[in-house]
Specification:
By secondary structure, the chain is α/β, with parallel strands linked by helices. The chain contains 19 helices and 27 strands. A 7-stranded mixed beta sheet has the order 2-1-11-10-12-13-14, sandwiched between helices. The protein has a 7-stranded antiparallel beta sheet with strand order 9-17-18-22-21-20-19, with no helix packed on it. It has a 4-stranded parallel beta sheet with strand order 4-3-5-6. α11 crosses α13. It is globular, with a radius of gyration of 24 Å.
Amino acid sequence: MTSRPETWPEAVDELLPHTLFSLAEKYPDLTYSEYPKDALDISKGYRNITYREVANAVNALAWWIEKNVGKPEKDDGSETVVYMGPNDLRYGILVLGSIMTGYKPLFPTPRYGAEGLNSLIAAASGSIMLTPASPFPVVAEVLAIRDMRTFEIPTLEALLAAEAAQYPYNKTFAAHKHEPFICLHTSGTTGFPKPVIWTHDWANSAAKGHYLPTPEGYERMDGRMHGSKARVMFMFPSFHASGFSGMLFFPLFTGSVVIYPPFAPDPKGQIEGLVAALDILGEEGKVDIIAMPPPQTEYLASQPELLSRVVSKVKSILWAGGDISVAAGTTIAAQIDLWDDLGSTELGPFPAVRNLKYAWSRENAGAYWPYMQFHPAMNIRYEPVSDSVEGTLYEAIMVRNGAAENGGWVQPNFRIYTDASEVSLGDLFTRHPTEEGLWKYYGRSDELLNIVTGEKFHPGTAERRVAAHPGVAEAMWVGTRRPRCAFIVRLEEGATVEDIWPTVEKVSRDSGVVASVRRDMILVVDEPFLKTAKGSVQKKAMLDLYGKELDALYAGGESNDTAKS
């Protein structure tokens, strides 16, 4: 096995394909990533994929695109190719191959329905659909309502085995930095997902964010998964911004080796596959850190034996993409270092730091794990917006860095909102009760319920508390533009409203008058909640889906009010 360098070349002011080819020339046999030999059978072990193989695959796919799809009319990334496939390295290869042939890729999540996908593809001006040999069923549904040219791309194995000639790519960063290179999308929590365009200048800003100096007396939290010696088990889907960042930015910008677990359709199978993968990798392939979404984090916390096995094999765990329950976080933090790697589609992962005085104490697990501190270069201002049972809620506002600040680093957000001097991150936080600079993520500002009385309530904590009841499968507060709050719940098999009512009543009481839910304002549903790619609830879609039932529920509630008066 080729030894890894002590330091990694900084990739700034250059286009991503040039970064890859430079690294492939310098470190051809160095491991780029590790994948299961069989995504459905981890017992077959892992395959190391080298920088040379990835470079060959990118060249092979670029030639394939030119031959089969053809070159776009404009060689500037304005035309979009759409791809939905299994969670493998073709996503990253397709990004670079698309850049070199003049396209930009769009990676929608296959979890959305055909209507939502059609809306997203139309907004991104997508006219070409690339598919694997076995497309997701929703692809056929999209093609039934949208006219697109369709092509089946080569398998990952075929691309990696290729010995393709170098595809000509002579663009420079200075001349082409404002061209788009990928189209991602919002989560769709509050409506159909919307396109988010990253330019080459955005990628350059993200790269420079990785290289920001660490303030004295602090630790860079993302530093644990960045660096030429870091080995990261990555559990995010490749179509998500976090998954894409891990697949391309980590190995290109920092030299990290990203390792992928076997495929499984649900958190239970994914965590069981993770543990099996750690066993297969053994001491020689030891993983430093696991990065996982909230549903997998919650499931791991609920399985003491599996958690114990994970803790014995890795140094730390991060979660990203949403919040986790206090119970789950405290359980994990009592055994291993745990933190929130907050980010957004517009900004990417947020550079965060931790004051070294906050020791990673197992005995003090509940004190600090929920809290984070942005790197000073993020230039965040906190504005109070509402009250909650946990204290004042603050909205995080990012202020554009000046030319003389932080080495001239401009935050990636402002490569999208180019004319803005400040941008809301859309995230709400509460202060640590005693420690300056520590903030706890509370939820999204667009999930605040605005009751017609003028009162506001963020339901995140209340929903998580009720969902922790063993009889509750999923829970959701509603109330915007309504006279009071109501509650949508899916019960576990055999559970009843009577079983969960004491918990709902207590959580309502603890959350204040504005959050109060009466017994006659509970809507029980049978179908699983609609979810985003991150696993969070599509709240706007849920309100649309159950609009008639909610109207009837509120009408009945008003009748009860009249009868009582």
